[in-house]
Design a protein that fits this description.
Layout lengths: L5 H5 L7 H15 L8 H17 L2 H10 L6 H10 L16 H11 L6 H4 L9 E8 L7 E7 L2 E7 L8 E4 L15 E8 L5 E3 L2 E9 H6 L1 E7 L2 E7 L8 E4 L16 E8 L6 H13 L1
């Protein structure tokens, strides 16, 4: 795995405070968010890098490991455990704890992931396998219903059941589907991050959906009935007479499925946007003039 400079990605110094990290992340996340840059592959890639950097630097524990172990920060715990179980020294004894040098550190990880000179030093110590990370890109409509999908990770096909209601950026863990353990140690886990794009007319906020619907002036004044499309079919709405522009209507349980709570849904909020008629005929203009006199 090549070293990734997360500080450089967020544009901050290594001495940056937690507050500065959060501020930098929010600024860049807004700039490169997929909703702001639709169909922009470069912005999409940048957005993923920014989120990854924040997951590391935005967590105090992860940041400490990253600062100390660089690209191998995820395996810091295994390295520390190995030092305790297999202590040894290089050079003259100085009366303190065992000393490790940079080549020892490299050998240790080499023994964990692909063989190397430290394999004999590790002896029969059992090491947990490496965790794998994968990203699955889906459309919003794909996660309205629970469905199955095959994901290929490191050449292996994994059949997944994706629950309805998963959120953009959500990470799920599949135990034991990571790298193989060393010396009989347990396998690592597979972490799957969902990247969900939204090309629909609905805006999603948690489990609720929001949409703006055009309403013609006559129906707004006189009332009537309209039909709208939802993720779960068509719905008829009754429009009250003298409906004002920007009126909001709540459709209970017509929103998005609640994650892992079968049968539960958020709400759908409709905002009416009244359309003013254009290209009026002479007769229509006369009628509006008569109406203006009556008012």
């Amino acid at each position: 795995m090549a070293f990734i400079d997360y500080y450089k990605i967020l544009g901050i110094a290594k001495k940056a405070t937690d507050k500065e990290i959060k501020k930098a992340y929010r600024k860049l996340a807004r700039k490169y968010h997929p909703d702001v840059n639709p169909d922009d592959k470069i912005a999409e890639k940048r957005f993923k890098e920014i989120n990854e950097a924040n997951e590391v630097l935005g967590n105090t524990g992860n940041r400490k490991k990253y600062d100390q172990y660089g690209k191998d920060w995820k395996h810091a715990d295994e390295f520390e455990k190995a030092k305790q179980q297999q202590p040894y020294t290089r050079g003259p004894y100085q009366g303190g704890a065992a000393h490790y040098f940079e080549d020892d550190f490299s050998d240790f990880f080499s023994s964990m992931f692909g063989g190397g000179p430290a394999r004999s030093r590790a002896g029969n110590v059992r090491f947990r396998g490496q965790d794998f990370n994968a990203e699955l890109q889906l459309n919003l409509k794909d996660v309205y219903h629970t469905h199955k999908q095959t994901l290929t990770v490191n050449g292996k096909n994994i059949r997944l059941t994706i629950p309805a209601g998963v959120k953009n950026g959500q990470v799920i863990k599949i135990k034991g589907y990571g790298g193989k353990g060393i010396n009989g140690g347990p396998n690592g886990d597979l972490y799957i991050k969902f990247s969900i794009t939204n090309h629909s007319k609905f805006k999603r906020d948690e489990d609720n959906l929001y949409a703006t619907i055009d309403l013609d002036l006559y129906k707004a004044l006189l009332g009537g009935e309209i039909t709208i499309n939802t993720f779960n079919g068509k719905v008829k709405l009754k429009v009250k007479p003298e409906t004002k522009n920007a009126t909001k209507v709540k459709l209970k349980c017509k929103g998005f499925p609640v994650y892992k709570k079968e049968g539960q849904y958020g709400d759908l909020y409709i905002t009416y946007q009244i359309k003013t008629p254009t290209n009026l005929s002479g007769k229509e203009k006369e009628l509006f003039k008569e109406l203006a006199k009556l008012r």
